[in-house]
Amino acid sequence: MPLAPSLEELTKMKKDQLQKSIDGEKIMNQPVPNVQSDLALGFSKIGIIGAGGAGKVAAIRAIKSIDPSVIRVQTLDTSGVETVIDNVTSTKIGELNGSGKLRSENIDIISNFVSDWITKNTFEDVTIIVHSLAGGSGSIITPLLVDEIARQGKIAIIIGIVDTESEIDTTNVFNSLKTYDNITNNRKYYLPTVLFDNKYGRAVVDQGIDETIVNLVAILTTPFIGLDTQDRVKFLNPHVFGDVTHGIKLISVTNKISEDWNDKIGMIIPQTEYNKIDAVLLISKVEVHHPITTLCSVSFRGYYEGTGIDYLVSIGYNIPQDFVKSLNDRIHSFKSVSEIQKTNFGSEYEIGKETRKGLVL
């Protein structure tokens, strides 16, 4: 799937279209013209935070295709590696060197550090946070950030990496989702979320994360006709519309109008049949009647003159029950295996006339 063009590329298209008579060098030094009264600006800047080791790597990789002028990128992690990258502010938490997937290992140190970090930093109106739900650091850092963003009445978007390979991975994922559920219930908060499952392979998940971040930034920052900033705010927080409820809400982002959930690589897929979703955002110069718009509470439309770029974003799916059940079953299967092992290692068995203790095969 091709990546969406950056805002810089879209801006150049607009300049070429609206100011053909102006010298090219002069155009490059001028602000984006807004000569059409119905050309609505988006957010001037989007925050991107990579939390924990996996989130840090994912965020730094994904922003390579994005115009740095429209994003503020930060990383927070406990790794022992200091990272110096243009346009990225990296912060190492204390003297730690990772958490080794144990959330309880450094929870007090991380919590105190992040709480202090929050008082010294500001959040953009929209912040995309990337992290592993199975990790020991990112799964502590991110909920703290989300809770503060919710308290400030701003928007957080979670891009989470799921891993259920081992017992600790599965338990961390389950506890991370429980933590987000508690935050959304306590704050009555609407939390747009994209979940990628490592069972599809690291390369597949990496590609999906990159495309999602690039497309989200383009959708939120590009000036579109008929779609202003408040439209985008309401789309990401449709909780303001009557019957829409708060909670963890899955969001799908694509730059192919014909694409559906089944084409999304590496994602945890909700059951969409017969489900009314909360909101749809459709960007297309051509009049499009997509079936998904008939199943939503509210829809927003816009287009960009002179380009063939389309976007379809839908939000409001609950995490599928079969996925939650699979997490529960996986955790219980580990506990069952553990109990069996304890019993078998202590079991008595006979060899000839001797009685021994050990593993019964």
Can you describe this structure?
The protein is of the alpha/beta class. It is 36% helix and 23% strand. The protein has nine helices and 14 strands. The protein has helices spanning 7-18, 24-28, 52-62, 107-120, 138-151, 167-187, 202-221, 229-236, 321-345; strands at 39-40, 46-51, 71-77, 88-92, 126-132, 155-162, 190-197, 224-225, 247-254, 277-283, 296-302, 311-317, 347-351, 354-358. A ten-stranded mixed β-sheet has the order 4-3-2-5-6-7-9-12-10-11, with helices on both faces. Strands 1-8 form a two-stranded antiparallel sheet. The model is unreliable at 1-5, 13-37, 342-347 and 356-361 (pLDDT under 50).
Question: Can you describe this structure in just a few lines?
Answer:
This protein has helices at residues 7-18, 24-28, 52-62, 107-120, 138-151, 167-187, 202-221, 229-236, 321-345; strands spanning 39-40, 46-51, 71-77, 88-92, 126-132, 155-162, 190-197, 224-225, 247-254, 277-283, 296-302, 311-317, 347-351, 354-358. With 361 residues, the protein is α/β, with parallel strands linked by helices. Helix 3 (52-62) packs across helix 7, helix 4 runs parallel beside helix 5 (138-151) and helix 5 (138-151) runs parallel beside helix 6.
